[in-house]
Amino acid sequence: PLGAARSPAASKWVRLNVGGTYFVSTRQTLCREPKSFLCRLCCQDGPELGSDKDETGAYLIDRDPTYFGPILNYLRHGKLIINKELAEEGVLEEAEFYNIASLVRLVKERIRDNENRTSQGPVKHVYRVLQCQEEELTQMVSTMSDGWKFEQLISIGSSYNYGNEDQAEFLCVVSRELNNSTNGIVKEPSEKAKVRHLLRCMI
């Protein structure tokens, strides 16, 4: 009688020995992905995989248990949760091994997003060096807009003679954050034209 009472529970729960670490889950969870290795292993319990069990009756899976947690949790609730100390590439490798196609897509998207975020860096700036005459400085500073900021002014003397009198020449360094960028390209349809119009001479 006791054995009969335990039989339904025993068939519902599955014990897994992944690389020496034990995991317990239900057949319903493990069969969320019908084509996955885990579904074939636990829900179609037949000769197809030729799986071994240890002395406790747990299915033996020769894989790294570190990355199995995110795999099992995904099957439980459908969300991809990876601890910061875990490499996403490791989770991807296991998702591919267990043949969980939807999870493979999710991890690849996460890796791609992180690579894009890393390549952009925390904050990027574009710098421009502009040459102008002394009389143009006031106009330039007062009309600078669209995110351009004044960084540095360098005097390069008055070696250029324009006929009547020498005019002091300056190099003006300005910068702008790439906060509206896509793949590092500044979306600035009018900035270049504005700067050229203001300063007339560009280096």
Summarize the structure.
This is KCTD2 protein. GO terms for molecular function: cullin family protein binding. The protein is of the alpha+beta class.
Shape: rod-shaped
Query: How many distinct folded domains?
Result: 2
Following the backbone from N to C, one meets helices and strands in this order, namely HEEHHEHHHEHEEEEH
The main sheet comes to: 3 strands, mixed
Question: How are the strands of the biggest sheet laid out side by side?
Answer: 2-1-3
Overall residue-averaged pLDDT value: 76
- Count of individual beta strands: 8
Topology at a glance:
Layout: H1 2-12, E1 13-18, E2 21-26, H2 27-30, H3 37-42, E3 59-61, H4 68-77, H5 88-97, H6 101-120, E4 125-133, H7 134-143, E5 149-155, E6 169-177, E7 181-182, E8 185-186, H8 191-199
Parallel strand pairs: 1-3
Antiparallel strand pairs: 1-2, 4-6, 5-6, 7-8
Considering the chains and any ligands shown, give keywords for the structure:
single chain, 203 residues, alpha+beta, Potassium Channel Kv1.1, Chain A, Alpha-Beta Plaits, 3-stranded mixed β-sheet, disordered C terminus
Model description:
- The chain is an alpha+beta fold.
- The protein has two domains: 13-119, 2-Layer Sandwich (Potassium Channel Kv1.1, Chain A); 124-157 and 168-178, Alpha-Beta Plaits.
- The protein contains eight helices and eight strands, in the order H-E-E-H-H-E-H-H-H-E-H-E-E-E-E-H.
- It has helices at 2-12, 27-30, 37-42, 68-77, 88-97, 101-120, 134-143, 191-199; strands at 13-18, 21-26, 59-61, 125-133, 149-155, 169-177, 181-182, 185-186.
- The longest helix has 20 residues, at 101-120.
- The termini are far apart.
- Residues 1-10 and 180-203 have low confidence and may be disordered.
